[in-house]
Amino acid sequence: MALAVSAVQSCSMCFGGNGLRSAIAFEAEKGYRNALGSKMRFSNFLLSKILKLCSRSKHTFAKSVLEEVDSYGIASISDRSKLLNKVSVLMGYDSLHDLIENERAEKRCVMNVKDAMDDFDVSLVCKRFPSIILGSSSPVELYDGTASFFEKLALLTTQSPEGFPSDSTGEEQEQDYLYETGDSLYPACPSVESSLLRDDQSTSLATEKISYPVLVEESFSKVSHEPQKDIVSDELILDSSISCIPGISKKRRSQLENCGFHTVRKLLHHFPRTYADLQNAQIEIDDGQYLIFIGKILKSRGIKAGTSFSIFEVVVGCEIADNKTTEHKDDSTDCRRKTIFLHLKKFFRGTRFTSLPFLRIVEQKHKEGDFVCVSGKVRTMPTKDHYEMREYNIDVLKDENDLSFHAKGRPYPIYPSKGGLNPDVLRDIIARIVQVLPINVDPIPKSIILDFGLLTLHDAYTGIHEPKSMSEADLARKRLIFDEFFYLQLGRLYQMLEGLGTQIEKDGLLDKYRKPESSAAYMEEWSSLTKKFLKALPYALTGSQLTAVSEIIWDLRQPVPMNRLLQGDVGCGKTVVAFLACMEVIGSGYQAAFMVPTELLAVQHYEHLNNLLETMEDVGSKPTIALLTGSTPLKQSRMIHKSLQTGEISMVIGTTSLIADRVEFSALRIAVVDEQHRFGVIQRGRFNSKLYYTSISSKLLATNSDEISKGEKHMAPHVLAMSATPIPRTLALALYGDMSLTQITDLPPGRIPVETFIIQANENGYEDAYEMMLDELKEGGKVYLVYPVIEQSEQLPQLRAASADFESISHRFQGYSCGLLHGKMKSDEKDEALRKFRSGETNILLATQVIEIGVDVPDASMMVVMNAERFGIAQLHQLRGRVGRGVRKSKCILLASSESSLPRLKVLGKSSDGFYLANMDLLLRGPGNLLGKKQSGHLPEFPIARLEIDGNILQEAHLAALKILGDSHDLEQFPLLKAELSMRQPLSILGD
Ligand SMILES: Nc1ncnc2c1ncn2[C@@H]1O[C@H](COP(=O)(O)OP(=O)(O)OP(=O)(O)O)[C@@H](O)[C@H]1O
């Protein structure tokens, strides 16, 4: 969390008086990733530096900047960047940009000096990123304390007959050649592996676990006479710089670093993309299959095929099981083998590739008699048992020992290349690290490892990179996926706990996550305002709406701030549940804020609530509700700000304007965030903490009043988030792992399921759709026409556009009035368009996705979606939810431009269950697509885990995180875990 501050401090160390500049550059470029805590600390740092500057400068500008710095920690991103700009100017730069450029130039200069010294200085890197601090934990030194690991690697190098000369030996060139020739070092390492580490007789994983480091240590102690305990004691190896891996030339090291492999961990996390079975297990070979074989090179030749054209061919003979022979044999265990011939071909164009010397060099690369592993796509050739490969990988196995070693059924890891780095090179380097990885690199406590049946981290790395069997690789994968989810959950819950004061509050919060079944406050216990509001509703609440309100009201009475997600299918009536929660808070003398993603929705909710309040009887003074959006006139918004501060306004509905700095509340008790996933976790957090701070500061103003003596004065507001996107549980956990969940599972009574038609959008298709529209209009219905874009575009001429179609639709449906609604219209124009459609002044509304969220026109009875294939299933389900909200039977027509998209859309015809559809979407397209491009930005990225299939591991990781935090709220008991959490920077993946 305190990454920015730590780095800031380090920068000041590195560059002496220029520390402020480095700090600002760092914060401007990276600081947005960090949480409130670190920003507050940066704010303090900034404050002290500017104070010093001010004492030198008489400038009044400096004073005003100083005042602003005070609110840095809670300011919005744009305000922070404006402030940093001002500080930069104060320091004599033209702008923040200028300062950053200068900082970069300085860095380059330092690097050049370093290069000139021709000696990579690890200590410089140490200084740049010396520590990452989480909360109050002691600093974790990066790139330091790696001596034992380094020495072990050095030992391995000196003992390897192949030898990986270190940088200092001056044999760098030779070593580079070793790599560039394409000779794989991966099987070469087993020379140490086979003599010292590998014991192929022992098949048990347990034996291997012990044998690895002990053997290395033994050999180390023989050489160095150092006590063993000094050797394997380094948990920080994973975050050591790759410069500590000997045998890597400078060139290679910089290649690796350019590809993002800065640390040992980064290399270890470059996982195999698949594994090959080197026993040539295939008995059937089909054209176009991607296969992996081992075999012997029978021929290698370069042929000049024309003046500027040459062919290089390697023929590899491979033995495979001959199924035809075995079929006819009675004793099927006696498996006959036959030889197949692979023709690996490469084509060269250009005169320089036809020269004899060139062709001889190419031939020399692969010598007859070499054992090789070949992978690629096979094509059958006219001659029986001959196959061609044009895109292939070829690894030379050094000798028959390696061949038998790998052929013993061990899966052979196939790595993806990265940034142009050859996968074989990566495999070699990774294999070398795996061999000497100490056993105690695992930050996760043993109890968790045992309880959840996990491999240790050491075994997981070994298992994923050098599995003895596929089941070992699977177990390793499970452990590594567990880690991805675990640190995410731990980070989120830790952050939640950090915000709470007492141990009781913290225990209470964890308890809530442990037992997701919530307690409920019965209706008799609700405040009188809530009961009266309920009475005024034109309908009775459904069973699950009632349960949801009871659960929320119970939460509102607890001393712990609620953090609850109210989830329910489109149109199930979440809004009224949230209104009731607000009434409960207002009834107890507090305030409520209701934040929505669009102005359109804010206006709709505001009008809806006012209408409901108007019908309320028997209420002395009705709650005052305000609407605050970006379009609210300045004068009016100032008045609203003032009334919120004094408490005259009980509830405010609005857009993100509600989280602007100037909005202060007198006693904010609940913040409702509608369409939660549109905002992202950081924004939610900001909303939460901002209001917490402002409410405190408001209260502090009233220090002398009685108010301050109330126990709850320091409590953060309750947060009720709402989502209409039915999200599969695992996805919800990944997105909102720190929230309790309430689901509305039923729909208001009397709803008739929407009939869905999937039609191909050819001439006939359009005709059919228009005729159905006409029938609907004649019967008094209202029709939404939804378009993927507003204007026609040259790039995508096949897309129908709302504005472009307005004329032709108006012409086609003469006698019926058309309206237009899209995102580019001004706020009041949008409101007007929706008002007219709602009142019936317009019968057809041509709209874009802008209506997808929350628009509620109960008597709209038909929706036609143009280019439906452009929308996701979950998105179409949301759109379809705009109709069928009243008692009238509704229809939805999905017009698909291509035949191929029809099957996917047909899922919508079969089901109207949002959860089912969301699960389908998750399985078909993955979580990113389910949430749409923009929103999926809030999803953490998991390099190895797939949310759609690894959901159960996520649940386990959630439980494990709860267990750890239950034992130690601040992770003080688990310093390694705390350091690891800090290192993984879970906060950087929490959202925008
Ligand atoms: N119990 C109920 N009985 C009948 N009608 C209801 C009930 N609850 C809500 N409604 C009505 O159902 C419609 C949809 O409700 P609301 O807009 O709250 O749903 P929502 O879940 O927020 O929908 P969306 O996901 O589309 O935003 C509204 O017109 C509302 O008045």
Automatic annotation (TrEMBL):
It catalyses: Couples ATP hydrolysis with the unwinding of duplex DNA by translocating in the 3'-5' direction; ATP + H2O = ADP + phosphate + H(+). One of its GO terms (biological process) is DNA repair. Pfam families: DEAD (PF00270), Helicase_C (PF00271), RecG_dom3_C (PF19833). Residues 769-923 form the Helicase C-terminal domain. GO terms for molecular function: 3'-5' DNA helicase activity; ATP binding; DNA binding; hydrolase activity. SUPFAM superfamilies: Nucleic acid-binding proteins, P-loop containing nucleoside triphosphate hydrolases. Residues 555-744 form the Helicase ATP-binding domain. InterPro entries: ATP-dep_DNA_helicase_RecG, DEAD/DEAH_box_helicase_dom, Helicase_ATP-bd, Helicase_C-like, NA-bd_OB-fold, P-loop_NTPase, RecG/Mfd, RecG_dom3_C. It is an enzyme of class 5 (isomerase). Belongs to the helicase family. RecG subfamily. This is DNA 3'-5' helicase. It comes from Rubus argutus (Southern blackberry).
